[in-house]
Amino acid sequence: MGRKIKALELDVAQRKDKLTEYHSYSPEEMFQHKGQKLFSVLDFWRYAYGQLEGLSDTLAEFLVARALGIEKSDKYYEEL
């Protein structure tokens, strides 16, 4: 019975990792609705983050990560 539980726990962990893995979007990727391309990821980024005011925490995290050669963590949204 213990072996089955361990196998189940491993399967759940693997599925969780797959479902929560980080995917970085490219600027060229498009938002679509019913097959119609609406706008690009770059269009959204420009709208949402065109001004860096209010993003000092995120900018600081990015600069430190770049300085240390760290890519964005796959576990960034994991519960604390």
Please provide a brief summary of the model:
The protein is mostly helical.
Protein described:
With about 80 residues, this protein is mainly alpha-helical. It has a domain at about 25-70. It is about 50% helix and about 10% strand. The protein has 3 helices and 2 strands. The protein has helices at about 1-20, 40-50, 55-70; strands spanning about 30-35, 35-40. A two-stranded antiparallel sheet has the order 1-2. The longest helix is centred in the N-terminal third of the chain and has 18 residues, at about 1-20.
Please summarize the sheet with the most strands: 2 strands, antiparallel
- Estimate the strand proportion: 5-15%
**Overall 3D form:** flat
**Rounded Rg:** 18 Å
- Counted by DSSP, the helix tally is 3
What is the average per-residue confidence, as pLDDT, rounded to a whole number? 84
Topology as a string of helices (H) and strands (E): HEEHH
Detail the topology: elements first, then pairings.
Layout: H1 2-19, E1 30-33, E2 36-40, H2 41-49, H3 56-68
Antiparallel strand pairs: 1-2
Identify the notable features of this structure and list them briefly.
80 residues, mainly alpha, two-stranded antiparallel ribbon, 3 helices, 2 strands, flat
